[in-house]
Design a protein that fits this description.
about 170 residues; alpha/beta; five-stranded parallel beta sheet; two-stranded parallel ribbon; globular
Amino acid sequence: MKILVTGAQGFIGRNLTAHLRQNPAYVVWGFDQENSPAELEARLAQADFVFHLAGVNRPQTEDEFQTGNVDLTAHICDYLQTQGKATPLLLSSSIQADRDNPYGQSKRLAEHVVTRYAEQSGAAVFVYRLTNVFGKWCRPNYNSVVATFCYNIAHDLPITISDRTNEIELVHG
């Protein structure tokens, strides 16, 4: 099986790619920012499954939410459809998709793009709204409260808990 992982060098993508490559039945390709649109299309043309993990969560400008989350997703789905493919696709989204902020809106729009792809192509799609993911290759003060707390405690730095009554759901990546 040929598998494409977008965002393969990100936290979740690195973990997934490392795991998938342990199975000799899988040919695993990565796609990241340094790859060209032509490379993406060449890999999409051959992929039997797409894990679409690439996205923008801390842009320099809000426009990057649109280009990195919505437009890239649309490009992937549109390309597959123009090739007459109904490649199964998994989209990593966020619990922020329920919130009315620029990031949440972009994730919700990406979900709609994937849903439309499924309706039009008949492809199986899976949308996972991830929450508080932690694990190997997490970066403190960036993408994991667990990594931040561990880093701060290990370095004798203070930790801040805004609401001690708030329980968070954790997912190990």
